[in-house]
Amino acid sequence: MLDVRRLRLLCDLDLLGTIAAVARVNAYTPSAVSQQLSALEREAGVPLLERTGRRVTFTAANRVLVTHAATVLAALEQATAALASASDRLSGPLRIGAFPTAVRTLLPRALVSLGREHPALELRVTELDPVAVPRALRERQLDVGLVQDYDVAPAAPDADVDTTPLLEETVYLAVPARSGTTGLPAADDSAWITATPGTLCHTATIQVCRAAGFTPRTRHTADDFATVLALVAAGQGVSLVPELAVADAPPGVRLTALPHRRRTRIACRRGAASHPMVAACTAALRDSVAYSAGHV
């Protein structure tokens, strides 16, 4: 019989790449992880890892086992959700990861609602770029997270994560009010305020500008849209901002709607969508979006 805890370590190794990283995530020593994986090999009856010094690579048998292990772990998530549904009271930690604009605009109302309806929940919020959410879910650092993509930068499917739509927004070009820039093509020679390279917002900005025929010239880098809009108002450059961020745009910013969309989805580990805590969080976030839409 294959040990489920060891299967989880194997999946973590597939995700993280090194035994040292698996040890950090699971609060084990590297030696303990190696021992557990060796025990899993004995249970499987076939070699799973090839070791060369400190490096390990997967065998063909390991690839097969990892695929099945992911299905087993998803089934365990479903079983946990079913057991939790038998209780009439939600309690314990609910760890939520969200991007900065959502933390400022959508989460406060959702958190108040969750706290009022389920006072025994321990709500914990982490500000996180959407590209980091799937990994945080797989590493069990989060229970629910907000992921995103843009029409110009669609997300690849992730077999380990279940998602459900939450919000779709218009993308705007933000320019200083006194600027002569009248649209995206005219912004090719402007200074730009872009997000940190590697973030989804940075990737989307590059793609939108390239589709318009140019590469943006970055002057400032900022990841919080309130900061971005303040810099635009100060005449420091132009930027792309989503609809959630423009409600509090300061004076001195002119906004032009673009034919591009940012899409936000609620994400959880595969099999966990029916867990009562995840379902309650999903409902609260949707209510918050509906409330915001009705008070624009």
Helices and strands in order, then pairings?
Layout: H1 4-16, H2 19-26, H3 30-44, E1 49-52, E2 55-58, H4 60-85, E3 92-98, H5 100-105, H6 107-117, E4 121-127, H7 133-138, E5 144-150, E6 161-176, E7 191-194, H8 200-211, E8 217-221, H9 225-233, E9 239-242, H10 243-246, E10 253-269, H11 276-294
Parallel strand pairs: 3-4, 3-5, 7-8
Antiparallel strand pairs: 1-2, 5-10, 6-9, 6-10
Q: Specify the overall morphology.
A: globular
Mean pLDDT: 88
Named CATH architecture of the largest domain: 3-Layer(aba) Sandwich
- The parts where pLDDT drops under 50 for at least 5 residues are none
Radius of gyration: 22 Å
- Which percent bin holds the helix content? 40-55%
